[in-house]
Amino acid sequence: MITFQLTWVIKLIYEGKLELELKSVESITEINFAQTLNYLSLAKFKLRLLINFDVVKLNYGIKRILNTK
């Protein structure tokens, strides 16, 4: 039997300055951070909030990522 991990991802842009990525995953991995930095560089954004809803308290799932390039 094949099982798949179900992942929900929604990306929003707020006033052309802030990008939000909403996820519901078991944990945020290094791959998620690498993708986020790549998206920030390509879109020329400085700030992105990576929000994971699969946590006990929502503030545990919020990661602020800055593009310093």
Description:
The chain is an alpha+beta fold. The protein has a domain at 24-69. 20% of the residues lie in helices and 36% in strands. The chain contains 1 helix and 4 strands; from the N terminus they run ββαββ. It has one helix at 30-43, and strands at residues 8-14, 18-24, 47-52, 62-66. Strands 1-2-3-4 form a 4-stranded mixed beta sheet. The chain is globular, with a radius of gyration of 13 Å. It starts with 7 loop residues before the first strand and ends with a strand. The model has no long low-confidence stretch (mean pLDDT 81).
Helix-strand blueprint:
Layout: E1 8-14, E2 18-24, H1 30-43, E3 47-52, E4 62-66
Question: What can be said about this structure in brief?
Answer:
20% of the residues lie in helices and 36% in strands. With 69 residues, the protein is an alpha+beta fold.
The low-pLDDT segments are none
Number of strands: 4
- Reading the helices and strands in chain order gives EEHEE
Q: What shape does the CA trace take? A: globular
Strand order, biggest sheet? 1-2-3-4
Q: How many whole angstroms does the radius of gyration measure?
A: 13 Å
Largest sheet features: 4 strands, mixed
The chain-level mean pLDDT equals 81
Structural class estimated from helices and strands: alpha+beta
Helix content: 10-25%
- Amino- and carboxy-terminal Cα gap: 45 Å
Strand content: 35-45%
Instruction: Please count the helical segments.
Output: 1
Which key terms come to mind for this protein?
20% helix; 69 residues; 1 helix; 4 strands; 36% strand; four-stranded mixed β-sheet; alpha+beta
